[in-house]
Write a structure and sequence with these properties.
It is a single chain. The protein is α/β, with parallel strands linked by helices. The chain has one domain: NADP-dependent oxidoreductase domain (TIM Barrel, Alpha-Beta Barrel), CATH 3.20.20.100. Helix content is about 40%, strand content about 15%. Strands 3-4-5-6-7-8-9 form a 7-stranded parallel beta sheet. Strands 1-2 form a two-stranded antiparallel ribbon. The protein starts with 9 loop residues before the first strand and ends in a 13-residue tail after the last helix.
Length: about 290
């Protein structure tokens, strides 16, 4: 049965050595419902969902401003992550993009700063800027997003071991491509894996389907919801984190409760069988 802990489960966030809530809060498209978004984020922080992820791309900075409102007066409680766009990822523009994000967020540092996806600018420029920002105290760690193993190998060759904190990637029960090589690579190199869209993107398994039925059966066993089962599966390893988005206070509370849910080995096996990972795709799936 489930093991509910007294507080939100947290794990060491890769080589950053910071303890971070296993389940956090995403902010993509959150800017569409501003007042509700701020309240939802604050409710999540109250419940221990202190890992907050945003990006300069989201609403052209609007999401960062909302996050800034939500964390005002509570900055020390939050593990704050933002991202630079590939088109802004030259050394000079990365430094400026970080400054702009800090201003919108109302803080003087980020806990982690990511390259949103790989573009045409050389990684040496972006990573060099990240190193400078870290030395200045404006970011505490840095990572990447949507990187497959060949890109991760290149990052490692540039910065060396013990520098890359995380790789943020698409991952949910119906999209398990990262299990082939990305997760093993990150495990070997002490890099956290952060799952975005951990409940899918408007395509959560239907109850009537084979996989959805398995989730429903496990939800009944653990006296939780199928969404919580799916989140617990995504976060079943110590290297895995998830950043679901929600504007509904009840859903935020359910996400928080899922962080304390530990699935038995036979139940993980049942989900694995219901949602086979399939063959390794030629390129890493993204949204």
């Amino acid at each position: 049965m489930s093991k509910l802990q007294s507080s939100i489960a947290s794990h060491r966030f890769g080589c950053s050595n910071q303890q971070v809530s296993v389940i956090g809060q995403g902010t993509w498209m959150l800017e569409d419902s501003a007042p509700t978004a701020v309240a939802a984020l604050q409710r999540g922080i109250d419940l221990g969902l202190t890992h907050i992820d945003t990006a300069e791309m989201y609403g052209s900075g609007a999401a960062e401003r909302l996050v800034g409102m939500a964390i005002k007066g509570r900055r020390q409680q939050v593990f704050l992550v933002s991202k630079v766009l590939p088109g802004n990822a030259s050394r000079r523009n990365t430094l400026q993009a970080c400054e702009d994000s800090l201003q919108r967020l109302g803080t003087d540092y980020l806990d982690c700063y990511l390259l949103h996806w790989r573009g045409r600018i050389k990684l040496t420029e972006t990573l060099g800027a990240f190193e400078s920002l870290q030395q200045q105290g404006k970011i505490r760690s840095y990572g990447v997003s949507n990187f497959d193993v060949d890109d991760l190998d290149e990052v490692l060759s540039i910065v060396g071991p013990g520098k890359l904190a995380c790789n943020q990637v698409l991952y949910h029960v119906q999209e398990r491509a990262i299990e082939h090589e990305v997760i093993p690579w990150c495990q070997r190199n002490d890099v956290a894996v952060v799952a975005y869209s951990p409940l899918g993107h408007g395509n959560f398994p239907a109850r009537s389907g084979k996989g959805g039925n398995v989730l429903e059966q496990l939800a009944a066993k653990y006296a939780v919801t199928s969404y919580q089962i799916a989140l617990a599966f995504v976060c079943r390893l110590p290297e895995l984190f998830a950043i679901p988005k929600s504007l509904n206070p009840a859903h935020v509370a359910a996400n928080a409760a899922a962080a304390a849910l530990q699935l038995a080995a036979e139940d993980i096996a049942a989900i694995d069988q219901a949602f086979p990972r399939g063959v390794k795709p030629r390129s890493l799936p993204t949204i």
